[in-house]
Amino acid sequence: MVTQYQVRLFHNGRNQTLNIPHALEMPSNDVVIRRDGERLIIEPFKKKSLLELLATLEDIDEDFPNVDEGLIPLDNIQF
């Protein structure tokens, strides 16, 4: 299997475009591109799940107010 291709960059206004060969097709239309020295690295963009996102947040060290304070208990409501 060929893992390397020589391709041409095209100018499109102020941007450059690159045609990616079918054999190197990305699994998604959304990608992340970054520069590493002289290299451009293109990776599929992976959306994090809510649990993965929450795991990156710092713990909250404050007390939350009791929003039920002063309300009658739900069991005592009569219609």
Description:
The protein is mainly beta. The chain has one domain: Pemi-like Protein 1, Chain: D (Ribbon), CATH 2.10.260. The chain has 1 helix and 4 strands, in the order E-E-E-E-H. Strands 1-2 form a two-stranded antiparallel sheet. It has a two-stranded antiparallel ribbon with strand order 3-4. The longest helix has 6 residues. It is elongated, with a radius of gyration of 26 Å. The relative contact order is 0.10.
Report the CATH topology name.
Answer: Pemi-like Protein 1, Chain: D
State the CATH class. Mainly Beta
Helical percentage = under 10%
Mean pLDDT: 88
CATH architecture: Ribbon
Q: What order do the SSEs take from the amino end to the carboxyl end, as H and E?
A: EEEEH
Give keywords.
single chain, 79 residues, mainly beta, Pemi-like Protein 1, Chain: D, two-stranded antiparallel sheet, two-stranded antiparallel ribbon, elongated
Question: What is this entry, summarized?
Answer:
With 79 residues, the protein is mainly β.
